[in-house]
Amino acid sequence: MFRKLGLAAFAVAFGTAAYAVDCPIKLGAILPVSGPMGQVGERIAETGLFAVEQFNEAGGVQGCPVEYVLRDTQGQSAVGVDAAKSLVDLDGVQALIGAVSSGVSLPVLTSVAVPSKVVQVSCCSSSESFTALAEEGKTEGYWFRTYATNRSQSAMGAKLVTDSGFERTAVIYVNTDFGVGLARRFEQDIAKLGGSITAMVAYNESQQSYRAEVTKALEGSPDSLYLVAFPVDGATITREWLALGGTDNLIVNNSLRSDDYFQAVGSQYLQNMQGYDSAQPRLPSVDSFNEMFEVRFDNPPNGPGLHSVYDAVTVVLLAMEASGDITGDSIRDNIRLVTSPDGIEVFPGPDGIARAKALLSEGKTIRYVGATGALAFDENGDVQAPKMTWKLDGDENVETGYLSTAEVAELIKMLDE
Amino acid sequence: MIGLVSYLVFFLILSLIFGVAVLGLNLQWGFTGLFNAGVAGFTAIGAYTMAILTGPSRDAVFGGFELPFVAGLVGAMIASGISAVIVGLATLKLRHEYLAVATFGIAVTIQLVCLNWEYLTGGTLGLIGIPNPSKAWAEGPLAQNALYLLVVLVVVGLTFAALERIVKSPWGRMLKAIREDEIAASSLGKSPERVRLEAFVLGCMIMGLSGALYVSFIGYVSPWDFLPILTFQIWTMLIVGGSANNRGALLGALIVWGVWTTSGFVISRIVPSEIQAQGGAMQAVLIGFILVVTLLVRPRGLIGEELYVSRHARS
Predict the structure, then answer these.
(1) Mean pLDDT across chain B, nearest whole number?
(2) Are A309 and A338 in the same domain?
(3) What is the pLDDT of residues A214-267, one digit of tens each?
C-alpha cells in the first residue's frame, strides 16, 4: 500500500518535472497551397502562421516557441494523407490544422489522425460526413472544426420560409458536398416547421443555361424558392426562374449575398428576396483580430477561412498550454477546457494570449472568444455562429434580424429533437 | 526511429497500391501499346465497388453488404473488368492518341457519374466507414499498417507473378507482336482486335484492384480521389520506371511517389516558415525538375524492356 503511494508520489513529482517539454513545439498544418485551391489555401496558410507568431510573441507554449510546419496537399487526398502521416511520424506533431476541402480532410482523419491519436482541427471543411462519423463514434473526439457547419444555414433558411408564411417551397441547390448536405437538412427542417417541398433540384456548376433545372423546379407551382448557389450560376438560375414565371419570393443562401449576384439579376427584381448569413459576431474580439490582421498584411481579412484558421490554431495552442504532457489526448480534452462556456473570457492577440496563459497557470478554466467569436464545440466537434437575416431595399442590403449563438443553438436543438 | 519505420510502412502501402495500377497500365501500354488515358476511371470503379460491397449499410445509399475483404477485391476486379469490356468494345478500334482522348473522356465521365449518382456512390459526400481488415487483427496504428502492408505485398506479389507468367507466354509474345506491327501479326492468323480487348480488360481489372486496396486502407471514398491528376501520376510512374518491364513499373511507383512526397518534406524543412505558403509552387517545380532529369538521363525509363526469347526456343 505504502509502496503504491510512494510510486504515486514519485509519479506526481516526475510528472511536474516532465512539465518542461521539448522545444520547439511543432504544430502541423496540411493545406492546399498549390493546385486548384492554391490561392485560397495560401492566404489561409499565412493566417495560420500569423496566429502562431502571435502566440510566440506571448511567450509560446509552456515557455517553448511553437514551430509551424506547413505541408502542401495539392488538393489531392493521397498527397494530403501522406503529408499528415509524415508530420505525425517524422515531425512528431500532436495536432494537425487542416485540410481545406472535405475530400482531403476526411481521409486524413480516418487514416492518420484517429489511428495515431492526433487532434485534427479544420478551418474550412463543411461536409456533413464529419458529423455523421462523429455521431458513430469513429472520430473518437479527435476531430474539431472552427467553420460553422451547414447545420445552422438550413435551419435559418427553413425559419425564414415558414416565418414568411410560405407553404410550398421548391429547392434548387449546387451539386457539391456543401449544397447537397445543406439541401437535405433543409428538407428535414422545413417539414419540422410545417412547410412543404414541391421539388428538390440539383444543378452542376458552370453551365450556360439552367432551363431544364428551373423547369423541373417549377412543377407543382411553388409559392417560394430556396436557392443554394454561388453568384454567377445563381444569377443565371434566378433570371431563368423569373423569366419562366417563377415566384419572386426567394430565400437565398448566404453564398448569394453578393453585389455581383444582385447586379447580374437586377435589384429591382429581387425586392422580395430574403437571405441569412453568418453574422460577424458583435464582439470586440473580432474587431481586434481584424485590426491586427490589417497591420500585419496591409489588407483586411476578407476571404474564406481566415478567421476560422486563426481560431483553429489559437485554440489548439491554448489547449497545449493547458496540458502537462502534450499529447493528442491531452489536447483533445483541453480544447474543451479552454472553450468552456462558464470560463473566464479571453481574447486574441499577444496580450489576450498572455492573459489566457496566466489564468491557465492559476488553474482557472477559460473561454476563448476569438476571431469568429466565442467558440463552443458540440460533442461532434462542430461549432455554431450567430446569424443575421437580410433583404434588399432598393439597391441597399439591409439587415432584418439577428440571432445570437445561443438563439441559433436553441433553434437547432428544437429542429433536431 | 519508430516514427520513421511507421512512416515508411505507410509510404510503402500507398506507393505499392499505386504500383498495382502501374502494373495494369504496363500491360496495356508497355506490352500492347494501348494508350489508356482513363486510368483514374477504372480505379474509381474498383474503389466504389469495394466500398459498396464491404462497407456498412446506410439509408438512402445502395449497398453496404458488409462482405469480406477478399470478396470486395474480387468484386472490384469483376466490376472494372465488365466496364472495360464495354469501353473496350466501343473504343478499341481507335489508335494511339485517338484512343487516349476517348479513354480520357470516359474517365472524366465516370468521375462525374460518381459525383452525381448519389444513390450508388453517396455523391459528393462520398462513402464513409469502409472497413480495413487489418484493424480487426492488430492493435495500434503501426501493427495495423504493417499487417495491411503484408496484404498489399501479397496482392502485388501475386499480380506481379501472374503478369510475368502471362507476358512470357505465347499470348504475351502476341501482345508485343501486335504492339510492334499489327498487320504482320494478323498476317500470321492472330486477331489483333480480340487480343487488344483482352489486354485492355485485364489491365483495367488490375487498376480496379488498386482502387479497392486504396479505399480499404483509407476507409473513405469520394469522387475527389479520381481526378485526372491520378491518371497523370500513374503514367509518370510507368514512364519513369520503364515501360514493358514489370519490375520497372513497381520501381517507378516507388520512385515517383517518393519524389512527390519527400519533396514536400524537404521543402517544409529547408524553407523558412515566413515563405512556406509559397512552398507549394516550389514543390511542383522540384517534382517536374526531377522527372525531366530522370527522363533525360534514362530516356527509356530506369529499367527498360528486356529482350526475351521463349524458353522453349533456347538451343
Answers:
(1) 89
(2) yes
(3) 999 999 899 999 999 988 899 999 999 999 999 999 999 888 888 888 999 999
Examine the domain organization and report whether A131 and A158 are in the same domain. Answer: no
Same domain for A96 and A110, yes or no, is yes
pLDDT tens by residue, B62-103: 877 888 999 999 999 999 999 999 999 998 888 778 889 999
User: Which of A68, A77, A180 lies nearest to residue B123, judging by beta carbons?
Assistant: A180
Tell me the residue type at A334. Answer: N
In a domain, A303, yes or no: yes
Q: Which residues in B lie closer than 8 A to residue A35 (C-beta atoms)?
A: 280
Vertex A129: Cα angle to B16 and A389 (nearest 5) = 140
Compare CB distances from A42 to B116, B129, B277 and report the shortest one's residue. B277
Q: Looking at residue A166, which CATH number applies to its domain?
A: 3.40.50.2300
Burial A340-355 (b: 16+ CB within 10 A, else e): eeebeebbbbeebbeb
Tell me which residue range forms the domain holding A44: 18-147+288-374
Q: Provide the phi-psi class of A225: left if phi over 0, else alpha when psi is between -120 and 50, else beta.
A: beta
CB contacts < 8 Å between A and B, how many?
Answer: 146
Asked if residue A343 and residue A241 are part of one domain, the reply reads no
Residue B264: which of A67, A83, A116 has the nearest Cβ?
A83
C-beta atoms of A49 and B276 within 8 A: yes
CB contact under 8 A, A115 and B6: no
- Considering CB atoms only, which of B10, B220, B278 is closest to A85? B10
- Inter-chain CB proximity A90 and B125 less than 8 Å: no
Distances (CA, A) of A282 to A130, A271, A327, A349: 29, 27, 35, 17
Report the half-sphere exposure of A72 (CA within 13 A, side-chain side).
33
Confidence of residue A408 (pLDDT cuts 50, 70, 90): confident
Average model confidence (pLDDT) across chain A = 87
Query: Which residues neighbour A266 within 8 Å (Cβ) at sequence distance 6 or greater?
Result: none
Helical H runs in A170-327? 177-192, 211-218, 231-243, 259-265, 284-297, 306-322
Q: Which residue type is seen at A107?
A: P
In what helix (H) or strand (E) does residue A392 lie, and over which residues does it extend? strand A387-393
A68 contacts B11? CB cut-off 8 A: no
* Residue A37: closest C-alpha in chain B: B280
A228 touches chain B (CB under 8 A): no
Alpha-carbon distances, residue A5 vs A2, A19, A143, A357, B25 (angstroms): 5, 21, 37, 32, 65
| Beta partners for residue A393, in sequence order | A396
Domain ranges of chain B: 2-227
> ipTM above 0.85?
yes
Instruction: Indicate if A306 and A259 belong to the same structural domain.
Output: no
In A, which residues are within 8 Å of B222 by CB distance? 77, 102-103, 106
pLDDT in tens, B158-186: 999 999 999 989 899 899 999 998 889 88
Scanning A32-91 for CB atoms below 8 A from B yields 32-35, 38, 41-43, 45-46, 49, 67-72, 74, 76-79, 81-83, 85-86, 88-91
- Of A75, A107, A133, residue with least CA distance to B219: A107
